[in-house]
Amino acid sequence: MQIKKNINLGIANLLLLLVIFINISISDAQDTSNDQYNVVVEINVLDKVSSKNTILKFNIGEEKKYQNLLIKVLKCENSKFDDDPEITAYIQVKDLNISNNEKVFVFNGWTFSSSPTLNPFDHPVYDLWLSSCKII
Fold first, then answer.
1. Following DSSP, what letter does each residue of 67-128 receive, concatenated?
2. Residues 7-39: pLDDT tens digits?
3. Is the pTM higher than 0.70?
4. Cα–Cα distance measured from residue 63 to residue 84, given in angstroms and rounded to the nearest whole number
5. Cα distance between residue 133 and residue 113, in whole Å
6. Strand, helix or coil for residue 38
7. Backbone phi, then psi, for 131, in 5-degree steps?
8. I need a surface site. Which of 1, 89, 95, 103 has the fewest CB within 10 A?
9. H-helix or E-strand containing 56?
10. Other CB atoms within 10 Å distance of the CB of residue 93
């Protein structure tokens, strides 16, 4: 009789753990999906020829064309533990004037708001730098 009670108690504990695990995994999936859709990234683009500065706003995963550049922001994060937060973003840039633009990115990597020269975007006509990453 004691063995049946232990088995029933073990099954009840297992079901309870499964329910808790499923709830945690569902809430984590909802949190990450909300972050992706509610993040707005601002990038400043400077045209070195005309000296015109433009602010472009992106959602994560969105691709925009600016003049001859095709810019896509894949990820953006704010540091959470600093008094002076660091903004980082993973950006891909293609130059549409280059004939093999399907194969090569002009820039493909992380950029930092406080030190854009750490991983610089090097282009003869345009300069871009990360301005902000806001969760809306």
1. TTEEEEEEEEEE-SS-SS--EEEEEEEEETTSTTTTT--SEEEEEESS-TTSS----SSEEE
2. 776 777 777 667 777 877 776 555 454 444 578
3. no
4. 29
5. 10
6. coil
7. -105, -50
8. 1
9. strand 52-59
10. 21
Q: Which two tokens mark 123? A: 């282009």
User: Look-up: residue for tokens 């549409």?
Assistant: 96
- Angle (CA) 59-33-132 rounded to 5° is 35
Q: Name the DSSP class of 33.
A: H
How confident is the model at residue 42, as a pLDDT?
92
What does the radius of gyration of the chain's CA atoms come to, in whole angstroms?
A: 23
Residues 6 and 14: their CA atoms lie apart, in Å, by 12
Q: Residue-wise over 46-65: b if at least 16 C-beta within 10 A, else e?
A: eeeeeeeeeebebebeeeee
**Residues 55/117/75/47 CA torsion (nearest 10 deg):** 30
**What is the Cα–Cα distance from 118 to 107, expressed in whole angstroms?**
13
- Residues whose CB falls within 8 Å of the CB of residue 95, separated by 6 or more in sequence, listed in order: 68, 69, 70, 101, 106, 123
